[in-house]
Each structure stands twice: as C-alpha cells, then as structure tokens.
Amino acid sequence: MNREKQIVDYLDSKQTFVRNSDLQKKLSISENTVRSAIKFINLDAQKNGFQIVHVRSKGYKLQIHDIRLYRAYQNSVSADVDVTHAQRRQEAYLYYLLQAKGYITLDWLSQMSDISRTTITKDLNRLECRLSQLALKLERKRHYGLKITGDEVAIRQAFSKYVIGSDLYIEPIREYRDFFARVNRSVLKEEIYQILRKHAVLVSDLAFDNLWQHYTVIIYRCTQNNYITFKKSETSELKSCYYTMSKEIASYTEEKLSVLIPECEIEFFALDIQSKCVIESMSKINTELLENSIRDSLRELDAEFYTPFCEDSELINNLLIHIYPLISRVNYDLQLSNPIINEIHSDYVNVFTMTLRFLELLETKIKLTKLTKDEVGFITLHFAASIEKRRQTQLNQLQKIVVICSTGRGSAALVKIKLESIFGNAKVVPISEHDLASVDHDLPEIFLSTIPFANSYMGVPVIQIKQLLNEDEIERIRENVVLQMTYRNIGSVSDRIVSLFKEEYFQCLETGNYMELIEEAAKLMVQRGDADPSFTQYVLQRENRYPTIFMNGIATPHPVQLNAICDTVGVILLKKPANFEGQEVALIFLINLKAESLFLHQELQRFILKLIENEKARQNILLAKSFDAFLFEMKKIL
Length: 638
Hints:
Elements: H1 3-14, H2 20-27, H3 31-45, E1 50-55, E2 59-64, H4 67-76, H5 86-99, H6 106-113, H7 117-133, E3 136-141, E4 145-150, H8 152-164, H9 174-181, H10 185-198, E5 201-202, H11 205-223, H12 240-257, H13 263-276, E6 278-279, H14 284-305, H15 313-331, H16 341-347, H17 349-363, H18 373-397, E7 400-404, H19 409-422, E8 427-431, E9 446-449, E10 456-457, E11 460-464, H20 471-486, H21 493-499, E12 501-509, H22 514-527, H23 535-545, E13 554-555, E14 563-580, E15 583-594, H24 598-613, H25 615-622, H26 627-637
Parallel strand pairs: 7-8, 7-9, 9-11, 12-14, 13-15
Antiparallel strand pairs: 1-2, 3-4, 5-6, 10-11, 14-15
Helix pairs in contact: 5-7, 5-8, 8-11, 10-12, 11-13, 12-13, 13-15, 14-15, 14-17, 15-18, 17-18, 22-23, 25-26
C-alpha cells in the first residue's frame, strides 16, 4: 500500500488526533517524511472532500467535509509501489523515467519511489527486458544515471500506458507537474470534443479518452522538443477532413497554451483521429463488406461454442462501429490503450477466449492482424455485454422458484425479498424440507436450498445457497441459475471443477522455464489421449501472443480453440517462481476443455480469482506437496 494512502487510512481509523511519533512508528518512516507526505496529500485533499489538519501538541486529524467525494477518492486510489512485487516496482521506475527529459540518478529514483537503491539495481535487468518488449532501451551512463531511449512513437505509447494510465498513487516529477499546473485540461478536452463534433465525427467515450491522452502526450513531448519523424508516404491515406480537425486543435493549443505543434505532429494526430473515429457519412460499401464479414464470423463462432451471437443485432452494430476505425488503427500502429485490461482479462477470461477466436475467424476475411491485448479487451466488452443481456433475459423467463430453508419466518422472508430483486418475474416460494411434497404437482424451474440437499429433486436442479445473502452470494446465485438453465442437469458445479484435476497432471517442481513447462505438460495431455494433437501448438501460440499470467504469480495457459478430447486441468506448483516477460509465475493451471464446456472455464476462473485475492489460500496451495493435499486445499476454497 502506498505511503499516502496508509496515512489517510490510519487517520480515518482513529477519528481523533494522532501524534507524529505514532505515525512514524506505525509506518516506519521519519518525522520529515510524515510532514512531506501530509503536505503532498493536502495539495489535492480539498477537491477530494477532506483535509488533514495539524494542531500543535495534539497532532494530525482527518476532517471529511464531503463524504461522497471522499468515498470516490478512496475507491480510486490503488495500492501503488508494492515493494514486494517486482512488477509494481518496474511500473514505478517507468513512471518516472518516461516523464524525465534527461537522465535521472539511482539516488533520485530511490528517494522518489521509496525503494532502496540496492533493490533498484537488482531490478534493472528485468526492466531492460520489459523495455525491449516495448521496442525501447534503458541507457545507463556513469555519473549521469538512467534514461529511456528509442523510437518516439514507442516512447509515447509507453508514456500513455505507464504515466497517463498509471494507477500508482505517487508524486510525479516537478517538470511534469508544473506542465499540468498551467494546462486547464478540462477546457482543452472539451474544445477537442467540440471540434470533432463540428465535423460530424462519431467517437466512443473510450476512443475519445485515448485520443485525449495521446494529445496530452503530444503537447508534453513537444515542450521537451521531442517530435515524431515519419515518411510522407505514411500519410498517403490520410483524409483531408481529419487533417483539418487536427490543424484546428493545434491552432487552439498554440493560442491558449503557447505550445507550437509542428506540421509532422499535426499529421500524426490526424492519423490518430482517423483511426479512432467514424465520420457519420462513412462509406456504405465498406461498411456492408465489413458487416457481412462480422456476421459470417459470428455464425462460425456460434457453431463452435454453441452460442447465439449472430442473432444479436445490437452486438453486430457495436462491433461494426468499433472495428471500422480499428482497421486504420492497426495499419498505423495507433491502437487504443486500455486502462482496465487486467480487470477484463481476469473477470471475463472465457469471453476473452471467445473474442480471440472471433478475431481469428475475422482475420481470414479482412486485413486485421497483430491486435494488442488492449484492443482485444475492448472487443471483449462488447461480447460480455451481449452475454449479460442474454443472461438477464433468461432470468426474467423464470416463473417459479422454490427455496428450501430451515430457518425461521423472518430470515425466510428476507431471503424471499432478496431473491425477488434478482428474479423480477418469478414467484419465490420458501418452504421447509418437510413440506417439499406439496410442490410435487407444481414443480418450479429451479430449487434453491439453504440446507444440505441432493443436486436435483424430481428432475429439477437444486442449487445450494447461503442463509444470508450478501452481494457476492447474490451474484453467485445468478450465475448458477443461468448455468443450470443453459446446461441442464450439469449437477454440482464444484464437483465438476474437482473432477477436472487428475493426479497424472499434477507436478510440484523447484522451478523452470515457463514456456518449456507448459509445453511439456501439454505434450503429456496429448500423449495420454486427453488433448487434441493441436493442443500444444495452440497453447504456445496463445501464450506468445497474449500471455495468461495474472497478478500474484498465477497463470492459466489455454488455447484459443477449445477442442479437448477429455476436459482436464493440469497443475504445476513452483517453489521458486519462473519469470516470463517480466512477470513471475508460481502456480500454473493448464486448461484443456471442450468448446461445449465453456461454462467450466468461467467457474474455474471464479476459483482462480479467489486465489488471487486470498493470499493465505494461495500460499496453502503452493505448500501442497502431494495431489491429495492440493485437492484438500482447493475444496476448501470451492
């Protein structure tokens, strides 16, 4: 957790005056550091609904004057430089190095990031590896320090991701901070939006935010005399209307901010507008060709995954509007950055897999290759919205639900009220186990039970639920009801998850090369007849293109095409984490499922998310020395 947030949270918990010495002891920092941190917090505290006041001889106290703003601030502040997590440390280094005009020293970087010089020195090799993936280099110069070098376009893409899109709650360098102190960002942002609308441009909120971020970087880099250089031929497909818009924006910038935007930058930003926006009068011929390609790809996807996407006209229209400018973005390598890609990838892993397969099918019909993970994430949201809409439609079709419970009338009534809020059109009937026979002649579509019960009653699925329904439990009920309605007679989901794991695919190793480990494990599944012969190739292709590594050292490698012979999940536990593309991996789940078992992928992901969030459970699994010990720990989580 970052230092500033620790201070705010600690003062909030005390709700009275706290001495400087107490803060020093609690956070293990010096008296001067406490003062500096609170001074920094108070710079933006007023606009976030609070202030930290100091009274001599009493200490510091948190005063909240707008609870709504304060809660929004608390929700928006993420843990910043987790010094125990190598990936977060690297993000902090990039945050500072990309802002700097010249070299920065290790001592300065250590002071700003609150990470020791020794740790930074050890991290530099991994940082260089990460930069090489961004087509950038880390220049080390004795007596000067560190500096990021490389192509200006690559630097700006990294700047957008690691500076503008950073979720680190740490202080920027002075030059960057002074720059934004004189730029009225809200006014400039509104001016850019109005110029686009004046020219009848259609642009999504996400695409506009990306455009705005890009233009912010352009202005800042221009103030440092860092300009784009590219050949005139690269703008041969630039349409004059987009150039006109970019020129108007540049003129406004020069007039209001006294920042000169050169011609090459105007053309470059015009290409960015062209790649992220759609003119209302876009070519009917091109859109018809693209729409037919989207429809055909959805039909093929539906045939593979047993889904009805091609029937969703809203999805088709949203994909059309998104993909039309995406083709131009890919051509000019101006793809959108996605600030929530990690959440999308972890929360919608099964939808992400379907999206990748859809894009593979679409690539056979139109030129659309080398999409970034960020872009795939945006398209995934369109599919997720379609699935959620269909799910809600299914829930609304339920007419009767019987809840088997043993608790008193009060708790039964509370359960009934909460369930009626989920299933708006259904009649919810709470009964005791002794009265169950009373519904034999008028069976519901679903039984819910707060007491231990069989998986079905008279052919109707029974879902176990808790007696007290919090938000997490309500969401779990919704998911399980939809699963039972979509896949009849699937039985206990937990039992199905457990059945996926086999002792012959369980390994507990010292360490190893990540790609070699999953390659050998995949080959074993093929040899034993549980996986298709193409399984190994498709898993490696997926990992090389879009790695499935999550936070806290968990990876879920799987192919884009789900074509298992027998649903299986392999497990590899590593005592010493492996490293792949700057990310550590200690727990690997190699997933081999059939396309019709996609729901199991979703349930597996729920289990994995629990592991990501629960450090104790994760450590218990990593300490398992046998398959039986692993299953024991896993069942506790399920």
